[in-house]
Amino acid sequence: MSLDRDDSCDLLCLDLPHAEAIRAGLPALPALEPAAAVARALGDPTRLGIATALLSGGELCVCDLAWVVGLAQNLVSHHLRQLRSAGLAHSRRQGRLVLYSLTGRGATLLAAVLGPAYAGTADDGLSDHA
């Protein structure tokens, strides 16, 4: 059995001044936790689909969003709460409806995750609540 060694150096070398400068500039792991939480929020395929529907549709009520993504309303509500907790979605009540939209940060991050094919699908009226 041969080992694929394309992912490591064949020679131990270290540019210590350069490596130490990079290390000194890295944030501590606890400081990275909020960013990791946001990444986890978009890391679930169901939430990614729901966020994509919001990117395309702008502001949607939970009922419409559940129909669009083909999932039960309670499941969609659960995932929307997680997107909202991560700062990627915003909700507002209008009478008996709860309407959701992506925050500016949510739309920007989602467009980056989805790539250029989706960059132009965001509604100009997206909420910018963060």
Features:
3 strands, 130 residues, Arc Repressor Mutant, subunit A, single chain, three-stranded antiparallel β-sheet, mainly alpha, 54% helix
Structural notes for this entry:
54% of the residues lie in helices and 11% in strands. The protein has a three-stranded antiparallel β-sheet. Helix 3 crosses helix 6. With 130 residues, it is mainly α. The chain has a domain at 32-118: Arc Repressor Mutant, subunit A (Orthogonal Bundle). It is elongated and about 65 Å long. It contains six helices and three strands; from the N terminus they run αααβααββα.
Topology:
Elements: H1 16-25, H2 29-43, H3 45-57, E1 60-61, H4 62-69, H5 73-85, E2 89-94, E3 97-102, H6 104-114
Antiparallel strand pairs: 1-3, 2-3
N- and C-termini, Cα separation = 52 Å
What amount of the residues lies in strands? 5-15%
CATH homologous superfamily label of the domain at 32-118 = Winged helix-like DNA-binding domain superfamily/Winged helix DNA-binding domain
Low-confidence stretches: 122-130
Q: Helices and strands, in N-to-C order? A: HHHEHHEEH
> Which percent bin holds the helix content?
40-55%
Number of helices: 6
Mean pLDDT: 86
